[in-house]
Amino acid sequence: MSDSPIPTLNSWVEVPKNSDFSIYNLPFGVFKNKKLSSRIGIAIGDKIVDLSILDQEGFFANMFLPEGIFIKDSLNELIALGKVQTKKIRERVQSLLLADNGELRDHSARGKVMVTRKEAEMLLPVKIGDYTDFYSSIEHATNVGKMFRDPENALLPNWKHLPVGYHGRASSIVVSGTPIHRPKGQFKDPDMEVPAFGPSRRLDFELELAFITGKQTKLGDSISTEDAEDYIFGFVLFNDWSARDIQAWEYVPLGPFLGKSFGSSISPWVVTLEALEYFRSANPIQQPEVLSYLKCEKDHSFDINLEVLIQPDGKKPSKVCTSNFKNLYWNVAQQLAHHTSNGCNINVGDMMASGTISGPTDDSLGSMLELSWKGSRAVKLDDGEERKFIEDGDTVIMKGFAERDGVRVGFGEVSSQILPAK
Fold it and tell me: Which of 195, 239, 245, 287 could form a disulfide with 188 if both were Cys (CB 3.0 to 4.6 A apart)?
């Protein structure tokens, strides 16, 4: 954990107790409502700061920002201005929201600047050019290896030497609240003589976080672990929906395809790397020693509490998993360094997901595949219902927050309901 003391900050905006969106957070997102077109905002408590109105009223006058930079349907152009500028924008908003600063509080435009969050429709925060999904939890990789391969040799020989990942489908990543139809596909159980086609019978979630790149590289360039955070703008919660029966039949020899590409869901607010600074956590001990290009001088893990809830249609949600981002074996700097080690170029708005974040205990397993141990045991919900995998009508809700010394920085939630197959 970071040794830096957390400064005491108070806002004139009323922030509910245990709100994810404290003055220490101030995440970026894209929203609209019945009166406003798509635009960029910053969340605090139950409000959204409309950055376009702040800009029009001259609050960013000394920053020489491009005209209309906040009247956009994605964060890409804003992020592309660079971390120096986006950090200044966030810090300027933070200063305007401080309790002893009356610039905005007493300004005639305050009513237009502060938008009620519950009346806003949140949009996909970035235009995602490319998406990569890693496989960075040793607990998850070990559990999957035990289920599908040799329990005595659960990890494949390469796993402790490099961050395993695959290139996924960016077009089917959707914002929280967007329903997902149960996918159809081809599957073949061990007791089936020939494969069949139809709706997935083993639909699953995967609890993940994803980072968004904020700086591009040229083809042939690589990023070191030391420089990696310069290229990371911020993080979102990520639900990597998975059709386990389709995946199990198709993944040999080239890995995930239709069992994953039908949909992934993300939270709408992008929590910046700067907001997470106070929640750094020590990198896990890696044995055997990694190659030099993957070594880290700095801690790149973060203490972020994560949880998953399942809500049957018309009923209350039940918590089924509690995990933590610091459980990952491979950190974000190593992921990005390895991703670009061959000269693969990245662009602003690319998304890199962590892979399922499982922990060492039974209640910290980040997928139904693990919680039900491949469907061999039922997961009980609070009302007595049982689940082995996700059923039609179920809504899966993921939440995440970091907390230290009474200061909370959270992600809100990513929530999506499963609808029947079309």
Answer: 195
